[in-house]
């Protein structure tokens, strides 16, 4: 791992090889970071997402997996779409699924020879994952991930409270 940092900002403005989109399984845009990424990238992103094959009715990207598209109107060359788990109290495999989101995204980035990646706080919006628990999973998975090539990872936070959690986890 080359470098792991956290900053507060707008992920759609990150100048990295890829930004990660906290998507839904259908990959047709939505609210939160997903909607912001789709608006910033332009309509070609939705067309690219719809061109990806369905793995079952209504699902292009199952929870915990990742898919890649071009970045279109974004500074980032690519968007890696991953679907985090909906929080159901913590006893339904949520931590394993969230960890899989980070591993799948990093593996896909490495497969495409990307060297810089920005993550949002996956599942921390409408999916209701408790922020401290989600940050702990995110930082642990990024630190544990290994590949033949170094990768700079940025945790891009939309608010100061999340940024403080990431900075504390990265300092530990």
From TrEMBL:
GO molecular function list: O-acetyl-ADP-ribose deacetylase activity
All residue ranges annotated as the Macro domain in the record: 1-172
SUPFAM superfamilies the record matches: Macro domain-like
PROSITE patterns listed in its UniProt record: MACRO (PS51154)
NCBIfam families: PRK00431.1-6
Record PANTHER family: GANGLIOSIDE INDUCED DIFFERENTIATION ASSOCIATED PROTEIN 2-RELATED (PTHR11106), MACRO DOMAIN-CONTAINING PROTEIN (PTHR11106:SF27)
Protein's recorded name: O-acetyl-ADP-ribose deacetylase
High-level lineage: Bacteria, Pseudomonadati, Pseudomonadota, Gammaproteobacteria, Lysobacterales
């Amino acid at each position: 791992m080359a470098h792991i940092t956290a900053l507060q900002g707008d992920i759609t403005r990150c100048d990295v090889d890829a930004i990660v989109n906290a998507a839904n399984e259908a990959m047709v845009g939505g609210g939160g970071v997903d909607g912001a990424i789709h608006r910033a990238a332009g309509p070609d992103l939705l067309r690219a997402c719809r061109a990806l094959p369905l793995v079952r009715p209504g699902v292009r990207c199952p929870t915990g997996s990742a898919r890649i598209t071009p970045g279109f109107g974004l500074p980032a060359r690519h968007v890696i779409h991953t679907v985090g788990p909906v929080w159901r109290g913590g006893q339904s495999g949520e931590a394993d699924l969230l960890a899989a989101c980070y591993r799948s995204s990093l593996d896909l980035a490495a497969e495409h020879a990307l060297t810089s990646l920005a993550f949002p706080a996956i599942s921390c919006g409408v999916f209701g994952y408790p922020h401290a628990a989600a940050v702990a999973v995110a930082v642990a998975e990024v630190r544990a991930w290994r590949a033949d090539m170094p990768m700079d990872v940025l945790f891009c936070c939309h608010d100061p409270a999340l940024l403080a959690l990431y900075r504390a986890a990265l300092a530990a």
